[in-house]
């Protein structure tokens, strides 16, 4: 499943993607015509991978919210 989401402030998009990549969370940019973010979470993605994304998003929100 693809999980699309946006940040509260578009100005944070590049920082979010940069920091996500630094945390080995890759390919989160949304479709170029739509923007935002998109996490692809398919059956082959282990629960630990999803939890790593959730933890990163929580941390990012606390630091930039």
From TrEMBL:
Under which EC number(s) is this enzyme classified? 2.6.1.52
User: Catalysed reaction per UniProt?
Assistant: O-phospho-L-serine + 2-oxoglutarate = 3-phosphooxypyruvate + L-glutamate; 4-(phosphooxy)-L-threonine + 2-oxoglutarate = (R)-3-hydroxy-2-oxo-4-phosphooxybutanoate + L-glutamate
State if Amino-acid biosynthesis is listed as a keyword: yes
GO-annotated cellular components: cytoplasm
Question: Which InterPro entries does this chain map to?
Answer: Pser_aminoTfrase, PyrdxlP-dep_Trfase, PyrdxlP-dep_Trfase_small
Q: Which SUPFAM superfamilies match?
A: PLP-dependent transferases (SSF53383)
Annotated pathway = Amino-acid biosynthesis; L-serine biosynthesis; L-serine from 3-phospho-D-glycerate: step 2/3
Give GO MF terms, alphabetically. Answer: O-phospho-L-serine:2-oxoglutarate aminotransferase activity; pyridoxal phosphate binding
Cofactor dependence: pyridoxal 5'-phosphate
Gene Ontology biological process terms, A to Z: L-serine biosynthetic process
Keyword entries, A-Z: Amino-acid biosynthesis, Aminotransferase, Pyridoxal phosphate, Serine biosynthesis, Transferase
Keyword match 4Fe-4S? no
Family recorded in the similarity comment: Belongs to the class-V pyridoxal-phosphate-dependent aminotransferase family. SerC subfamily.
Name of the protein this chain belongs to: phosphoserine transaminase
This protein's species is: Caenorhabditis remanei
């Amino acid at each position: 499943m693809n999980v699309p989401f946006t940040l509260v402030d578009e100005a944070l998009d590049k920082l979010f993607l940069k920091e996500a990549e630094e945390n080995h969370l890759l390919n989160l940019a949304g479709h170029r015509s739509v923007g935002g973010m998109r996490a692809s979470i398919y059956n082959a993605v282990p629960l630990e991978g999803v939890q790593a994304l959730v933890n990163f998003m929580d941390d990012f929100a606390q630091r930039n919210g």
